[in-house]
Amino acid sequence: MNHKDMQILVSCFLDDEVTDDERNEVAKHLEVCNECREFIEVAQQARKGIREIGEAPITEFFAYRVAHIVKIREEQNDEWLGVEPLARKAFFALIVIVLIMFFYTIIDINSYTINGEQLITESSMDSASTQVLLQSDELSKGDLLYAVVAE
Amino acid sequence: MADDKTLVKAVKAGDHKAFEELVRRYQRQIANLIYVRLGNREDVEDIAQEAFIKAYQSLSQYDFEGSFFSWLYKITMNLCVDEIRKRKVRKYLSLDFITEDNLEKSRKSKEHHTPSDEALREEKTEIIRDAINRLSKEYREAIILREYQDMTYNEIADTLQISLEAVKTRIFRARAELKKTLSDYFEERT
Predict the structure, then answer these.
(1) What does the DSSP 8-state code read for residue B147?
(2) Nearest to B143 by CA among B127, B154, B156, B125
(3) Between B131 and which of A97, B48, B140, B181 could a Cys-Cys bridge form, CB atoms 3.0 to 4.6 Å apart?
(4) Confidence band (pLDDT; 50, 70, 90) for B121?
(5) CB B153 within 8 A of CB B168
(6) Could you tell me the pTM of the whole model?
(7) Higher pLDDT residue, A5 or A114?
(8) Are B20 and A55 within 8 A, CB to CB?
(9) pLDDT at B7
(10) Is A1 within 8 Å of chain B by CB?
(11) For B50-108, what is each residue's pLDDT tens digit?
(12) Residue A17's closest chain B neighbor by CA?
């Protein structure tokens, strides 16, 4: 066994995690090895120091309080879960209504056409705008602009 | 007394009393772990509470592979890491500690300070905690479970889900690191 393996065994010895044979072996080694004796000494002091850190404070009713919080949150969740499907349905219904209104507006705009004759009823028949407006039933923005400028 | 597996199954079936029993069973160990990691008594209960609630909420993910404590341990350690990160951010964001007034108070307090047994004990605790926190995560976990929680090597192997050989090596290395950090301090005090 090399010295590093022996050091690991010394550490196990400190925790009483060795067999009887290993304990005897470590005891013999400690008689001759200063380094390992020092290791044990510091490790024991560190252990004492770690244990002196003390217990953390926990109030008497901690477990009851945690279980109670969990229960309350779960009940609130259950209540919310009852409302959720209704809210979801209402939301989708609203979306459908908005979409219908939107498409209706688009269809309505597209079906609207401008008739040239309607626009120039009060204009004299030989004006430039009349010549343009009477050429077609449906007018582009350019036609209208031209007619307005010419008028 | 019901074992952890039975209690966890009961909790999954909606038994809140079983959950309370699980909390009662591990509250001390979890609180101690948080305390030794964070070193702040005030925050221990809040973080322990958060750990148990988080465990309850994600209990469906617990598949009985390792022990319940091992699973709870991981949740707790992750919360501690989050808390340490938050504290660092808070420390950087708050510049109160460098105001002239605070510096003056700190100077006066040091001047009038006489070391009592209590102060020395607190200093020792701080130094040891600091030395533990300097260890790598693997070594720190192993040494805390051994020295502070007084677990056997088999229990540590089960909690950390590592081999018995790995436990032996990690504990030895943690001790060797602590020896490097603390031997001067212990020499001064003797």
Answers:
(1) I
(2) B156
(3) B181
(4) confident
(5) yes
(6) 0.66
(7) A5
(8) no
(9) 93
(10) no
(11) 999 999 999 988 888 888 999 999 999 999 999 988 888 876 666 555 555 555 655 65
(12) B153
Establish if A58 touches chain B: CB-CB under 8 angstroms.
yes
Q: Residue B47 in contact with residue A74, Cβ under 8 Å?
A: no
Minimal CA–CA distance to A9: which of A36, A34, A41? Answer: A36
Residues in B 24-83 with any Cβ partner in A closer than 8 A? 24, 27-28, 31-32, 34-36, 41, 44-45, 48-49, 52-53, 56
Residue B18: closest C-alpha in chain A: A67
Tell whether A48 lies on the interface with B, counting CB pairs under 8 A: no
Nearest to A70 among B16, B34, B147 (CB): B16
pLDDT at B39: 80
Q: How many CB contacts within 8 angstroms connect chain A with chain B?
A: 125
Q: Is the pLDDT at A126 greater than 60, yes or no?
A: no
Determine the Cα–Cα distance for residues B24 and B153; give it in Å rounded to an integer.
24
Predicted pLDDT of residue B99? 56
